[in-house]
Amino acid sequence: MARAEPPAATFERRVLRSAAEHHYLRVRLELPDGGARPSVAQFKQLVVSALRELHGEVGAALPVDVLIYEEKTLSAILRVISSGLVKLWSALTLLGFYQNRRCAFRVLQTSPFLLALSGNSRELVLD
Amino acid sequence: MAGFADLNLPQGLDKKSLQSLLEAAAHLGYSAVALNHVVDFKEKKQEIVKPVSPSELFPSLPIVQGTSKRIKVLTRLTLIVSDPSHCNLLRSTSANIRLYDIIAVFPKTEKLFHIACTTLDVDLVCINVTEKLPFYFRRPPVNMAIDRGIYFELLYTHAIKDSTMRRYTISNAISLMQICKGKNIVISSAAERPLELRGPYDVANLGLLFGLSESEAKAAVSTNCRATMLHGETRKSACGVVYTVKKPRKVEEEEATLPACKKAKTQA
Questions:
Q1: A126 touches chain B (CB under 8 A)
Q2: CB of B41 within 8 A of CB of B81?
Q3: pTM value > 0.90
Q4: Where would you say this protein principally sits, based on its record (chain B) (predicted)?
Q5: Are residues B231 and B248 in the same domain?
Q6: φ and ψ at residue B110, rounded to 5 degrees
């Protein structure tokens, strides 16, 4: 029995899953005036300790890289695997102290593409 | 799109630190904040004072980052109730209570939580985040509160300060989410210093940790806050609030030019 030809598909279904392996975060550490500024190694240590504090050893084992760290402005670009973005971000949010002094991480931008961090539309001045 | 809001900044601070707190909030992108006046009935001689008017306190409010508008400052009253008799105050039409934009209650017992969710005329019900929950949430009052448009408030500053409180914050939040399924949640700060404030997107990400979905987490800092403010506004009016926005005229001009264009084509 000849099967009726299915009508030509008028649409096709495409599923795009975010295939990006990493996410990039541009962060700035805010410290009260006059405090000691962390070096690169200390900064990485701070990020890992924040992860350990909130998510334990599993969190501390999360692959996080500090791509750029500028000691003068205390800003950095972090790279993390996409599945760990929420963990890293929440750990940074809930970090409140650096060397027993108050501090705050400001996450300025996040993106799956490093190039997107080259500009920030929120810093543009509106007329 | 509703802007971001933080409905809990403590009012008891001095003017200078409040000003710096407002500036930090505006810089982080919050378009509205509420100054919280707390009344604890356990302590003697607590009376409800008139709300300080924000325009009197700050002659010029900071401009919200990314917009050209100034930050909106509301007033909020939080009543800590530990005895059913305290609720009488809310039922009576006290003149001073009506002056506040938002009214919240902090119930200490299960019975009071039930009363707050089902009968009291409030906008927010605060959830205890600093100690183990003294009672379990039950479905009927929570569902009733969702139907009535009352929101549940979670605070995150305690989670930044102390690791034990962080545990309680997350565990209490998760047990609330099991009952309310992520609906009607507002996350706010109660920050006393600018360094305790977090940006709205950070807070939304924190909502994921509490068991909210991405859209619910974002709603917890934006649309739910707006709904709370509007709920508070309806208390002052007879039945409701309607906002109208003037439609931009540009659309009409485009429509007018389009037929002319078509005309030219047929002629040619």
A1: yes
A2: yes
A3: no
A4: nucleus
A5: no
A6: -65, -40
Q: How many domains does chain B have?
A: 2
Domain boundaries, chain A: 28-112
The position carrying tokens 């938002």 is B102
For the stretch B171-214, pLDDT in tens is: 888 988 988 888 889 999 888 888 888 889 999 998 998 888 88
Look up the domain containing B266 and give its range.
240-268
Kind of pairing between the strands at B30-40 and B4-10: parallel
Amino acid, single-letter form, for residue A108: L
Taking contacts as CB-CB distances below 8 angstroms, the residues of chain A near B159 are: 94
Same domain, residue pair B182 and B120: yes
CA A53 vs. chain centroid, Å, equals 17
Model pLDDT, residue B264: 47
Per-residue pLDDT reduced to its tens digit, A36-87: 888 889 889 999 999 998 888 898 898 999 998 988 888 899 999 988 899 9
Angle at A99 between CA A94 and CA A105, to 5 degrees: 35
User: B251 and B163 in one domain?
Assistant: no
Residue A81 backbone phi and psi in degrees, to 5: -70, 145
Strand-pair partners of B39 = B79
Task: Answer yes or no: CATH 3.30.70.3250 is held by domain A28-112.
Answer: yes
Comparing B15 with B176, the larger pLDDT belongs to B176
ipTM of predicted complex:
0.78
Residues of A in contact with B196 (CB under 8 A): 96, 102, 104
Q: At B56, is the secondary structure helix, strand, or coil?
A: helix
CA A100 to chain B, closest CA, distance in angstroms equals 11
Q: Which residues in chain A touch residue B156, judged by CB atoms under 8 angstroms apart?
A: 94
Judged by a CB distance cut-off of 8 A, whether residue B201 touches chain A is yes
List the beta bridge partners of residue A80: A23, A64
